Amino acid sequence: MSNRVVRTSEHIEVFDPAALDLIDANAPLESLASGYGWSEGPVWDRQRDCLYFTDVPGNIAWRWSEADGATKLLDPSGVARDAATGFREPGANGLAMSKDGSLLICNHGKRAIEKMNLETGHRTILARTYNNKAFNSPNDIVEADDGSLYFTDPPYGLEGLDASPLKEQNFNGVYHLQPDGRVTRLIETLTFPNGIALSPDGSTLYVSQSDPDAPILMRMSPDGSNAAVLFDASPYMSDTAPGLPDGMAVTKTGHIFTTGPGGVFVLSPEGKPLARIKTGKATANCCFGGRDGQTLYMTAHDTLMRIRTKSVGLPWS
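Structure tokens predicted for SMP-30/Gluconolactonase/LRE-like region domain-containing protein:
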């Protein structure tokens, strides 16, 4: 795969002119807030016109808005600090807005998938085990049209990762939580499954693998079948391009904005790299937000950033 740059600016490398239909090559990159240990899980709340994101090792979930800037939403976001023994990252990680208006939370410290009522603050555990064994540390989550939840479960929250004595699952899996509460493991062949998303029609599930020896983005059917590599980030790895495939956001046209070495890649629905947004930091995740769904918010290591695009993210239409 070629990583030839056909046009570059301060913040954007263009690999294919088709990218110019999706993002302005001269768009400015804004830093909105900083000082976090590892920022993650950005999600836009259209009802309240604000963004939620997490600092996973800091064990705090944050709310950001134009009016108020960054303010604490949950402290702690995961498990209570006096109960964090054995955890490398005890806080909440990935977030998603449920279609019922609640906030879905991947809780490292509780090793669970939660749902939070944003009006009352009440949190309900939706799932915490598979085959009567605790999850590792649920990482990222997406909701399908039928209310099904798909999530990844790497060991990043645990001290020692795969060697942690707290680890009960034999695999770092990708799971399907059905509306009736049943949990199915879809795939168990990925070393470090991380970010997860669905195509606009819900027919394709995307899962990233944050493994420096195999930094890839997979596509598969929602039942875990037909799994194949969609994008291999290996050619883009370098000492000056920190980061691995992690979180992602999908546009209504099926294009994928996925984190990777050096920032955020813009991919065609077929996985062709069209451009890279250069954040200058290892970038964990991204989401579309704003009133029109055309602003990309990015959690880049210790900083929350944004950039305007020509793309419209899901679920805007």
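DSSP finds no helices and 28 strands in the chain.
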